[in-house]
Fold:
Amino acid sequence: MDPIATSVLYVGQDDTAAKVRLALEQAAPTAAHRFAFAQATLGGKDGLDRLSAGGVDVLLVDAAVSREHAMDVLVRARIEAPEVPVVMLAGGGDAEQAGAQAIQTGAQDWIVRDPIDGALLGRVLRYAIERERLQSTLRQLALTDLLTGLYNRRGFLTLADHHLRLAPRTRGLLLASADLPDLKRLNAQSGRDEGDRALLAAAEILRDTFRASDVVARLGADDFAVLVLDAAEETEDVITPRLRARVKKYNTDHPKSKLAINMGVARYDSASPPIASELLARAVEQRESDGRRAD
Structure:
């Protein structure tokens, strides 16, 4: 059986792409360590489209020509495919500064562009993949809710604060707060097992309502929250009817265990940037005062 090559997507200039391809070929002394190379332009959408399609193990972004464009690609990549590690190629006199900025923005590592050391590049890419996998495992252990598998409060607020720092580079950000208004009555009448089934159903409905790139969490008891990333102006008008349709379908399929979900939404304001807990409090207030009910 042939070994599976490590898939590298390079986003940058054509002339550098040839050097990166050659360096990766030199960095793979045996078939067991092969790299599969693909290229996309820095200013276009083709790189993010390929990333969203899946099959990419590591993203290599060239910041030597335009650091601003490279950081934009990095931010969008962490939104579209957060499981894919990013390594930045930095060159020129400010390589150290560009590399530090890349790591603060979410890259796993950075490497000097001129000259490109094949052996070093190969090691950096492999280590970035392994670190991302390890960090993902640790996050899952510490930051997830045991019942639903969603992020817990700690995990949600940690990720939310990170994405709020990146929000000015995106189309916007929404935070939705949801709860199950009938859960307390259900627990009292039918027992905690039935209540747990309702929570699991609500978690699945929220996963299905929002995109895979959005951050869905159970904060405690019947409180849920969703961080909607890269949210356009019309996003809020889309998610409310979608949630209602998902709840209606569930209730049609489960007439003896119907659900109701209340939801409130708050939008990130770049003129007065909030921290995650503040934005969450605004969404909860909106849910409790003028929430949208889906049942």
